[in-house]
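> forwarded from #structure-qc
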């Protein structure tokens, strides 16, 4: 592992905050060890950032899934085992108006009574359903967010409402047979502001689509069980309602456009894959990767961090980690901070970090069956200067 300057304990000075890498990388999950794809079942990849929560029995659940969702569980964040049981199968609807095709459990929030909600990252790849006349990627692709719910700690899931009534966020333009890929997805997880109780989510739109610019949008809600409660940032307030593109009157799209964060500060395709509240910094902290979206085989492996007092005004990209990548690596991405000691503070959703924490990230390879994919961790300490 090559850190940003030295082989270990590299210190990065950034806006009077030192970030120190305090361990070598360690493996949280290697798909070559779990072999959940055996006997012809769907493959099991870490294709979302790691999220974590406690179930009603106090077990730690780690969520990092493919479009067929399985969980890792165990006594603590750094001691979990992959369970090959499928907890959510994608709906695979060929109707883009349902926003329920390839579905990934992306952002989770657990309640003490055993109820867990999740924002599903929904992808509609038109080519999968014979609804695309273009070859290659990106093309014929829309993304959205919808709401799922579990009453048993996340061990089985259903839509919170029949699709598309469970829609949370979508760009107000319909799927097209075109060379575009657009829509709200790729969240930073759910984070709660301890000062006022609001829940926030960052989400990313991959390409410009008419009035909607590509980049990161922020939305917030006070009611996680209500998919219609989220409101996006319009440049001055959280006042943008999200609606189905199939219910928008022509010419009314402007009322459902979310203002993206400063693209000079976060140039696309820099994506906030993890957002948490830092008790030590008393601020929101985001982790990002900036891999070229149209050239995943030539990814930039550098991971970044940023901080904000209010989820809107951020202090820019700061280098965090640049892992060495074996020759068979094609992507290092999905960085997210998870604090193993969060439950001891009463944080059952691992939605906060303290001065020291763990950075999780995913290493993908050119051949999954030969080299697997790994969910990795490395320990990090912040120090105010």
């Amino acid at each position: 592992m090559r850190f940003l300057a030295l082989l270990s304990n590299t210190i990065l000075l950034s806006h009077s905050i030192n970030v120190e890498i305090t361990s070598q990388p360690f493996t949280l999950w290697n798909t070559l060890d779990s072999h959940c794809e055996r006997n012809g079942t769907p493959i099991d990849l870490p294709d979302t950032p790691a999220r974590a929560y406690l179930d009603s029995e106090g077990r730690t659940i780690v969520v990092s899934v493919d479009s067929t969702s399985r969980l890792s569980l165990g006594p603590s964040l750094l001691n979990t085992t992959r369970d090959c049981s499928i907890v959510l199968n994608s709906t695979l609807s060929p109707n883009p108006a349902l926003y329920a095709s390839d579905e990934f459990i992306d952002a989770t929030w657990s309640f003490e009574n055993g109820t867990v909600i999740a924002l599903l990252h929904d992808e509609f790849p038109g080519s999968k359903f014979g609804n695309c006349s273009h070859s290659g990627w990106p093309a014929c692709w829309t993304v959205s967010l919808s709401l799922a719910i579990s009453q048993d700690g996340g061990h089985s899931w259903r839509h919170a409402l029949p699709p598309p009534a469970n829609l949370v966020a979508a760009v107000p333009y319909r799927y097209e047979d075109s060379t575009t890929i657009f829509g709200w997805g790729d969240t930073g997880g759910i984070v709660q502001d301890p000062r006022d109780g609001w829940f926030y989510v960052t989400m990313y739109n991959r390409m410009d689509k008419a009035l909607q610019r590509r980049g990161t949008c922020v939305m917030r809600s006070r009611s996680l069980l209500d998919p219609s409660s989220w409101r996006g940032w319009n440049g001055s307030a959280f006042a943008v309602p999200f609606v189905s593109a199939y219910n928008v009157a022509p010419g009314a799209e402007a009322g459902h456009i979310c203002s993206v964060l400063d693209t000079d500060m976060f140039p696309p395709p820099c994506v906030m894959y993890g957002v948490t509240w830092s008790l030590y910094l008393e601020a929101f902290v985001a982790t990002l990767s900036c891999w070229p979206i149209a050239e995943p085989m030539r990814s930039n492996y550098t991971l970044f961090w940023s901080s904000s007092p209010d989820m809107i005004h951020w202090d820019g990209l700061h280098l965090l980690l640049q892992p060495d990548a074996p020759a068979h690596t094609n992507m290092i991405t999905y960085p997210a901070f998870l604090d193993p000691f969060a439950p001891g503070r009463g944080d059952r959703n691992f939605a906060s970090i303290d001065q020291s924490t763990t950075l999780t990230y995913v290493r993908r390879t050119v051949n999954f069956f030969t080299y697997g994919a790994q969910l990795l961790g490395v320990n990090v300490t912040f120090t105010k200067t």
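QC bot note: The chain has a mean pLDDT of 91. The longest strand covers residues 79-89.
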